[in-house]
TrEMBL record:
Cellular component aspect of the GO annotation: plasma membrane
Membrane topology, from the record: Single-pass membrane protein
UniProt-recorded name of the protein: OmpA/MotB
Domain OmpA-like: 201-320
Ranges for region Disordered: 292-311
Compartmental location: Cell membrane
Keyword ATP-binding: no
Keywords linked to the UniProt accession: Cell membrane, Coiled coil, Membrane, Transmembrane, Transmembrane helix
PROSITE patterns: OMPA_2 (PS51123)
TM ranges: 29-49
Recorded family membership: Belongs to the MotB family.
Signal peptide per UniProt: none
Domain of life: Bacteria
């Protein structure tokens, strides 16, 4: 009876599932290959950066194809082994292949590493407008020139033109503010005229009806004209630009035309203007030309005897034009 009361022994195995799958080691091999490739790449970059031109040329020669273009013959140790005497691959019966073998890098091995050396004959036309009054410059890049240098020159020219435009604007504003701010000269602000020409900024003092800047038929400067010239001199005295002065008259003949005409009168007025500018600090070396033009360039061509044709022009020369480097039309 006792043997029948014994309970059977049950063994229960519990397998724990921690939720993590088995990881293999294949990714380690791929990662190692990737790191090896990156190391080789950066090593190549370091060699290119640290090597001089001679070493780079030798490296390029090493990878340059050594087979000639005529029949595929080679000059190396394998000549006659890989290729037969007739230029045909050993073990074949056909003629030499007509396919042109690659020649990239044979003329200049460094071109393999620098693409700029492969474009040696650019022919580029660059046109840009950097002159007032619609004046246009054009520059042609000759064969063998550097496009980057031309682009930098273009940017420098445009920057210089922008700076000159700003300088002209400041000069006009300074002169007009001085004139308007003076109770004695405020009414003569209409006698001032500013024109931006291809040569530079032309500042003109013109006659108005009943308001003559010079004594009639004389080169003697009126007091108000002298004050206006003083303001102009103060505005340009610190500038490096050269100055030109021209005198103009109307078409009314001078009374003493036999000995003294509008030519002499306009020249004397321009010279009197030069003396006033110099007396107010303008260096005489900056004044490069004095012109007496009589009535040949009227401000009002429709009315040659109009008072505004009588005027004095002081031109602040454009920097390049003053240096004799102004572009041709």
């Amino acid at each position: 009876m006792a043997g029948n009361n014994e309970q059977p022994i049950v063994i229960k195995r519990i397998e724990e599932d921690d939720g993590h799958g088995h990881h293999g080691g294949a990714w380690k091999v791929a990662y190692a290959d990737f790191m090896t490739a990156m190391m080789a790449f950066f090593l190549l970059l370091w060699i290119l950066a640290a090597s001089d031109e001679e070493k780079l040329r030798g490296l390029a020669d090493y990878f340059t194809p050594s087979l000639s273009q005529s029949g595929g013959r080679g000059d190396g140790l394998l000549d006659g082994t890989v290729l037969a005497d007739d230029g045909v691959m050993s073990g074949t019966d056909g003629p030499a292949t007509p396919v042109q073998l690659p020649s990239f890098g044979q003329e200049n091995p460094l071109a393999v590493f620098d693409s700029r050396l492969r474009d040696t004959n650019p022919n580029i036309q660059v046109e840009y407008d950097t002159r007032p009054e619609g004046r246009q410059e054009s520059a042609t890049i000759n064969e063998g020139s550097d496009p980057m240098e031309t682009a930098r020159a273009q940017v420098a020219a445009e920057r210089a033109q922008q700076e000159w435009d700003e300088a002209q604007e400041r000069l006009e504003q300074q002169i007009m503010q001085e004139v308007v701010g003076s109770p004695e000269l405020e009414s003569y602000s209409d006698n001032l005229r500013f024109d931006r020409t291809e040569n530079g900024l032309e500042i003109q003092i013109v006659d108005k009806s009943g308001e003559s800047m010079f004594a009639t038929g004389s080169a003697r400067i009126q007091d108000r004209t002298r004050d206006l010239l003083r303001i102009i001199a103060d505005a340009v005295v610190e500038l490096p630009n050269e100055l030109t002065i021209s005198g103009h008259t109307d078409s009314v003949p001078y009374t003493r035309a036999a000995t003294y005409s509008n030519w002499e009168l306009s020249a004397d007025r321009a010279n009197a203007t030069r003396r006033v500018l110099m007396a107010n600090g303008v260096s005489p070396e900056r004044i490069t030309r004095i012109s007496g033009l009589a009535d040949t360039e009227p401000l009002n061509p429709g009315s040659p005897d109009a008072p505004e044709n009588r005027r004095i022009s002081v031109t602040v020369q454009y920097p390049e034009a003053a240096a004799g480097a102004a572009p041709q039309e």
